[in-house]
Amino acid sequence: MSLNRDTIASLCLIMACGGLMFVSLDIREPDYGVLSPATWPRLIIVIMAILSTIYFVQSIRLPRSKTPVAPRLSFTEFVLYWRNVLIVFFVFAIYLMVLPYLGMLVGNILFSLVLLTALGGFKPFIMHIMVAFGTSGGMWLLFIYGLDVILPRGSLTGF
Amino acid sequence: MMETFLLALFNILDITTLTFMVIGVGAGLLAGSVPGFTIAMAIVLTLPFTFSMPPAQGLATMISVLVGGLSGGLMSGILTGIPGTPSSVATTFDGFPMARRGEPGLALGIGVWSSFCGGIISAILLVLFAPQLARIGLEFQPWDFFMLVMFALTVTASLAGSNLVKGLLAGAAGLFVRTIGEDDAVGVARFSFGSDYLLSGFDFIAVLIGLFAFSQLLSDLRDPVAARKSLSDQKQVKVRIEHRRAIGILIKNWSVVIKSAFIGMFTGILPGAGGSIANILAYDQAKKSAKDNSQFGKGDPRGIIAPEASNNAVEGGALTPLMALGIPGDITAAIMLGALLMHDIVPGPTFISDEPVLSYSIFIAFFLANFIMLALQSGVLRIFVQVTRIKTYVLATGILTFATIGVFALHNSTEDILTLFFFGILGFAMRQFGFPIAPMILGVVLGDIAELNLARALAINADPMLFITRPWSLFFTIIALFSMLFPIYQNQRDKGTLLAKLYAPFMLLALSVPLFMMGGNVRPILAVIAIATGGFILWRRFQSNASPS
Q1: Are residues A61 and A79 in the same domain?
Q2: In the structure, what pLDDT confidence band is assigned to residue B549 with cuts at 50, 70 and 90?
Q3: What is the DSSP track for B499-529?
Q4: DSSP string, A57-112
Q5: Which residues contact B141 (CB under 8 A, 6 or more apart)?
C-alpha cells in the first residue's frame, strides 16, 4: 500500500465523518416535526463517509506512477515554497485581530500596505502607499457615501 | 402583460440602474479580460454591492457583469494569446493567429459581434423557453425537487473535474456546510459546539466569496516570481475594431453563429456545463462541419465566431432552469440564485408568474447588457491594456481588500470576514488536492432547498420509494445515475468497450420509462422516439462490430 497525498486526505475525511457523526448524536430531537433535525446532516455524513472510503480505496489502488507525488521539502523549503500563501494567511489573521481597534479604514490601509510590501518588496514602497490609500480609501468612501453602509470604527482610531 | 413589461422596462431604464449596468458591463469586460480573474469571481464580488439595491437593480447589475465577463475574455485571448477566461480558450486558436498576421482589429470585431449575436439569440431563447419550462415545473412535487437538486449536484460533480468521487465529495461538503447552525424548521442547534458564531450559521455569500475568490487569489499568488509579474509589458496597443468588415463576415457565416448559439444555450441548460465546455464544443462542430477547414488554427473567422457566439449564449441557457425551476445551470447562475435568496426571493416554477416584473426585468437587462457590451468594448480595450500592466500581487491585494469590505457590508458583521478567511483557506486546500469548487458552491446554494423539499416530501408521505417511483423523480434519478457513469463512459469510449457501446442507448431506453409514466400525448411520443433512437444506436453499434473490418 502506498501512502500518498490522496490517501492521507481520504483518511482525514473518514475520521472527520466519524467525528461529525458522533457530534450529530448531540442534536436535540424535538417531539414535533416529521423530519428530525439530525436526519439530513446524518444522511450527508453517511454519503460523505461512503465517498471518502471509495476515495481511500482509489488512492491506494492507484499505480505508483500515477500517484500525485509531492516533492519532499525540508521545513525551510516548505516555507519558501508556500511563502506568499503563508504571508496572506498571517497578515489576514493579524488584520482580523486588530480590526476592532483600528477600524475598517485604517485597518484596510495597513492591511493593503503590509501585504503589498510583503509580497512585492520594499522597492516600490511609494507605489504601495499610493495603492493602499487609493484602493482602501476609495472603497471606504464608496461604501460609506455611495452605498450607505456603516463600516466599523476602531476603538483606538475613532474612524 | 404589457403593463408588467412597461413596469420592468422603467425599472431597468432608471438612470441609477442604467449607470450600474454600464459600470457592471465595464467591470465584467475587464474581469473577463484578465487571465486568472474569472467571471464567477467578478460576479461573486458584485454580490455585496447589490445587497443594498432593489432586487431588479441588483440582478441587472450582476447580469451586466456576467455579459461583460463573457465577452471580456476575447480581448486577451486575441491580443496576447492567453485566454482571459476558460470560456474563451477556443477563441485563441484562430483569434491570436489572425491578430499576429496583422488583423487584430478584424479578429476583435468578429469576436465582439459574435458575442453580441450569441447573447441576443440566447436572450430570445430564454424569453421563449423559461416560461414553458416553468409550466412543466409546476408538475413537480417535493420528491421531484429533491431529486432535481441531487441531479444538479451529480451532473456538476461529473463535469467539474477529472475525479467524480472528489466532485461528489465536494458537493456533499457544500450541502453539509448549510446544515451548520440553527435548523430552519424547528430551530434546533446543529454542529454549533456551543459557539454563537456557529449557531447563527455561515453566511453563504461570505462562503461563496471565500471559496471562490479568496482561494483563487491565493492560488494566483502562490508562485512568488509569477506574482510579481504583470500579464503584459506592452506599453500601448493601437487597435481599431473593424466593425463593418466583421459584420460582413458574420452575415456570410450566419449558420455558424446560429448553430454555435444553440450549442451554447443547450450546454448552459445542463447543470455544471458552462462556457468552458461550450466554446470547445462549438469550435469543434464548426471545424467538423466546414467544407474547407484547412485554415482553422491559422486565423479562420469561423474559429472565432463559433466559440464567442456559444460562450455568450451559455448564460441564457443557465438562466433558463434558474428562472423556471430555481435550479442554476452553472456556477454563475448559482451565484445569481444566491443574490435572489439574499433578497428573500426563492425562484421556482411559480417565479415568473409570482414575480412577473422582476422576471421581465431580468429578460430586459439581459438584452440591454449585450448592447451596452457592444458599445463599451472599444473603450474598455484601452483600459484593458493598462490593467494588464498591473502586477498580479497588486491586483490580488486590491481585490482582497474589496472582498473584505464587501463581505462585511453584507450584515455589518466582522464574523463574516472570519467566514471569508476560513472558507478561503478551505477552498485553497481543496484546489491543491484536486477537488473541484463548483459542486461545493452548488451544494452550499442548494443545501437548504434540498432539506426543505426532503422535509416536505416526508411530511406528505413517509414512503421513501416515492423518491424513485414518481415519474419526474425517476427521470432525474436516471439522468443522475447516467451522469455519474459519464466519466467512465468518456474513458472507455475510445477503447470501444461494451459499457461505452451500451451507454447512450441504455440511457435513452431507461428515460423512456418515466416519459411513458408521465402520460399525456407528447411525452409517450417522446418515449417512443427515445426507444426507437436507442434501439437504432444499439443495432448500428452491434452491426458495425459484427461486420468484417
Answers
A1: no
A2: very low
A3: HHHHHHHHHHHHHHHHHHHH-SSHHHHHHHH
A4: HHHHHS-GGGS-PPPP--HHHHHHHTHHHHHHHHHHHHHHHHHHHHHHHHHHHHHH
A5: B457, B460, B470, B472
pLDDT given at position B42: 83
Instruction: Note down the domain range covering A142.
Output: 75-146
3-state secondary structure of A141: helix
Arithmetic mean of pLDDT, A35-44: 92
A 65-124 → B contacts, CB under 8 A: 68, 82-85, 88-89, 92-93, 95-96, 99-100, 104, 108, 111-112, 115-116, 119-121
**Whether residues A83 and A140 fall in one domain:** yes
Q: Within this chain, do residues A85 and A124 fall inside the same structural domain, yes or no?
A: yes
What does R_g of chain B's alpha carbons equal in angstroms? 23
A80 in the same domain as A57: no
Q: Which of the two residues, B541 and B84, has the higher pLDDT score?
A: B541
Q: Are residues A80 and A141 in the same domain?
A: yes
B234 pLDDT higher than 60: no
Let me know if residue A156 belongs to a domain: no
Is residue B317 a contact partner of residue B268, using CB atoms and an 8 Å limit?
yes
The answer to whether position A153 is within a domain reads no
Q: Closest CB to B169: pick one of A34, A52, A136.
A: A52
3-state secondary structure at position B232: coil
**pLDDT band at residue A13 using 50, 70 and 90 as cut-offs:** very high
Compute the count of residue pairs across chains A and B with CB atoms less than 8 Å apart: 153
Does A16 lie at the interface with B, CB-CB under 8 angstroms? no
Assess whether pLDDT exceeds 70 at residue B271. Answer: no
Inter-chain touch B191–A47, beta carbons under 8 Å:
no
With a pLDDT cut of 70, the percent of chain B lying above it is 95
Each domain of chain B, given as residue ranges in start order, spans 2-229+240-458, 463-546
Tell me what the pLDDT averaged over chain B comes to. 85
Best of B153, B404, B407, B431 to mutate (most A CBs within 10 Å, chain A): B404
Residue A24 to residue B175, Cβ atoms within 8 A: no
pLDDT tens-digit profile of B389-400? 788 899 889 888
Does residue A91 share a domain with residue A139?
yes
Question: How many separate domains does chain A show?
Answer: 2
From A9, A54, A111, residue closest to B401, measured CB to CB: A111
* pLDDT tens-digit readout, B392-426: 899 889 888 888 888 887 778 889 999 999 999 99
Tell me the whole-structure pTM to 2 decimals: 0.83
Inter-CA distances, B35 with B112, B133, B235, B384, Å: 18, 35, 18, 11
Q: A66, A86, A112 — which closes off a domain?
A: A66
| Residue B548, pLDDT above cutoff 70 | no
Same domain, A59 and A98: no
- Residues 26-65 (A) with a CB less than 8 A from some CB of B: 27-28, 30, 32-35, 37-38, 40-41, 44-45, 47-48, 51-52, 54-55, 58
Between CA B399 and CA B403 the distance in angstroms is 6
Q: Would residue A28 count as lying in a domain? A: yes
A145 has pLDDT over 60 = yes
What is the β-pairing status of strands B181-182 and B189-190? antiparallel
Q: How far is A35 from chain B (nearest CA, A)?
A: 6
In a domain, A158, yes or no: no
* The three grid cell numbers given for residue B191, joined into one nine-digit string: 454542529
Rounded to an integer, the average pLDDT of B285-306 is 85
Question: What's residue B232's pLDDT?
Answer: 60
Distance of CA A24 to the CA centre of its chain: 24
Q: Which of A20, A37, A66 is the last residue of a domain?
A: A66
